[in-house]
Specification:
- The protein has 15 helices and ten strands.
- The chain is an alpha/beta fold.
- β9, α14 and β10 form a beta-alpha-beta unit.
- α2 crosses α8, α5 packs parallel to α7 and α9 crosses α10.
C-alpha cells in the first residue's frame, strides 16, 4: 500500500520547477495556471529569484505547492496512472496538506493557489515582525520538547509546532520564550536548539488572527470529497469528509503538525511505501519514524521515469 506525500515550507529554492517545465508542457501548464490564478509571475520568481522574495511566506507556499503538483501531474501522464489507482492515502506537511487535497481532487489548482497566497499573507500579518520566533530542537523527543516549552514559557506562548520525527521537534511562540528555550536545551537532555530563519511563529496560538482569516476564506470555497483519504496534520488521522477537512484546515493554522504520528499511523493503516513529490524533506522523516516503509523522493523527470518504470 502506498501514500503520496507533499513537502512544506523550507523546501523552496531558486530554480525549482525550471528544468521540469522546460521538459514537459504538462508541468509548464501547472505553473501558468498558478500564475494566472494569483495574477503574478510566480514561476519567474521560482526560476530566477531573488531568493529573499521567494522565501516570503506568501510566495513560498503557493510555489512549493505548484512545484509538487506539476511533478505529480507529469508522473501521472508519464506513467499513464491516476493518483487514486496508485495511492491509498495522501498527506502533506503544513501547507503540503493543501497540496495533498489538490492532488486528491478536493480543491482545484487555482483555488489552492489563492488559498495558500492568502494563508501566507495572513500568517505574516498575524504577528508583528520580531515578536515571534521558532526553533528546531535536535535530539529531542516530544516529551522532552513539551517539558522544555512549558519551562521556557514564563507567561508567554511557547509550544510544540511540529513533531517531525523521533529526533526533531520544532517549537514556536514569543521571541523571548524561544530564546529562553534555546538557552535551556541541555538542562532538558536535548542536544541542540537552532533558531529558524522564519518570518513568523507558525503553528502556535499567536496565529489566531490568521486562523480567523482562513476560516472566512474557506467558508466561501467548495471542497469536494477527495479521491483518497487525506491524513490531517492536527489529527494524524485520515478523513474524506469535506466539512471536516474545512474545519481541520482552520485548526491547522494554530495547531501542531503531527508528522511523526502521521507517518506511524499511515504505516499502521497498511502503508508500506511513501512517495514524496517535489521535495526530499519528508522522506527521511518518514524513514526515521517508521520501520519497514520504503521511501522515494521524486523531483526530476529522471526520477519520474525511474519511478513510473518500476510500477
Amino acid at each position: 500500500m502506498r501514500a503520496f506525500i507533499f513537502p512544506g515550507q523550507g523546501s523552496q529554492k531558486v530554480g525549482m520547477g525550471q528544468e521540469l517545465a522546460s521538459q514537459s508542457d504538462i508541468a509548464k501548464a501547472v505553473f501558468d495556471e498558478v500564475d494566472e490564478a494569483l495574477g503574478q509571475n510566480l514561476f519567474a520568481l521560482m526560476c530566477d529569484g531573488p531568493e529573499d522574495e521567494l522565501t516570503l511566506t506568501e510566495n513560498a507556499q503557493p510555489a512549493i505547492m505548484a512545484n509538487a503538483i506539476a511533478t505529480l501531474r507529469v508522473a501521472e501522464a508519464e506513467g499513464g496512472i491516476a493518483l487514486a489507482d496508485k495511492a491509498a492515502f495522501v498527506a502533506g506537511h503544513s501547507l503540503g496538506e493543501y497540496t495533498a487535497l489538490c492532488a486528491a481532487g478536493a480543491l482545484d489548482l487555482q483555488t489552492t493557489a489563492k488559498l495558500l497566497k492568502l494563508r501566507g499573507m495572513a500568517m505574516q500579518a498575524a504577528v508583528p515582525v520580531g515578536e515571534g520566533s521558532m526553533a528546531a530542537l535536535l535530539g529531542a523527543d516530544i516529551e522532552k520538547a513539551e517539558a522544555l516549552a512549558k519551562a521556557a514559557a514564563e507567561g508567554e506562548i511557547c509550544t510544540v509546532a511540529n513533531d517531525n520525527d523521533p529526533g526533531q521537534v520544532v517549537i514556536s511562540g514569543h521571541k523571548g520564550a524561544i530564546e529562553r528555550a534555546i538557552a535551556m536545551v541541555k538542562d532538558h537532555g536535548i542536544k541542540r536548539g537552532i533558531p529558524l530563519p522564519v518570518s513568523a511563529p507558525f503553528h502556535c496560538p499567536l496565529m489566531q488572527p490568521a486562523a480567523d482569516s482562513m476560516a472566512e476564506a474557506l467558508d466561501e470555497v467548495e471542497i469536494a470529497t477527495p479521491s483518497v483519504p487525506v491524513f490531517a496534520n492536527v489529527r494524524a488521522a485520515p478523513t474524506l469528509n469535506p466539512d471536516e477537512i474545512r474545519a481541520l484546515l482552520v485548526e491547522q493554522v494554530t495547531g501542531r503538525v503531527r508528522w511523526r504520528e502521521t507517518a506511524i499511523n499511515m504505516a499502521a493503516a497498511g502503508v508500506t511505501e511513501t512517495v514524496e513529490f517535489g521535495g526530499k524533506v519528508l522522506t527521511p522523516m518518514v524513514g526515521r519514524s517508521t520501520d519497514g516503509v520504503t521511501t522515494t523522493s521524486i523531483i526530476s523527470l529522471d526520477d519520474i521515469k525511474g519511478w513510473t518504470g518500476s510500477l
